[in-house]
Amino acid sequence: MGCIDCTHIKIQLCGGKDGEVYRNRKGYFSINTQVVINAKLEIIDIVARWPGSAHDSTIFDHSRIKTLFEMGRFGDSVLFGDSGYPTLPYLMTPLLNPTTAAEHLYNESQIRTRSTVERCFGMWKRKFPVLAIGMRFNRIEKALVVIVATAVLHNTSIQERFENPNVDAYNAIQQLHNANAINIHDQRQNLFLDYFHK
Q: Least packed by Cβ within 10 Å: which of 88, 122, 142, 170?
């Protein structure tokens, strides 16, 4: 079905008696946001409400996506997660101590597949730097709305790219690549004639 992981979205401390629960293990204040992504790097499920101190597996245990899997709503679909998640019939995590060749191949495939979620986080935070730099709202609820809104906009941009690929941009890149290849070929020919021709 997809890959699952959490990412920390930086926020400014809002104060109050519960302010410290937003401090994550890296020492800054954040919202620990869980997402499930598909092969197109679209965010197909998001949970953006837990403080930075919450563990990824705790967020998953209380999520709707886990409940739906437990109810059998997704048939034999599976999720790929890192070792911070429990191993469940529908949640494939890496083996901690692989010994056989098959186990090593499984781990390699699992890690490569799961790396797409990290690419998605990178794209999402580059498109919307406020997610990486940090939000300065006086209420946490406003930050949660921004997180979800940017996820929707991220999906919209991906869908637009898949539905309407920019052929002109692709052609321009190809022409530039071809021109560079010809130029490199000419330079190599000159090198042959100048230095290696007898």
A: 170
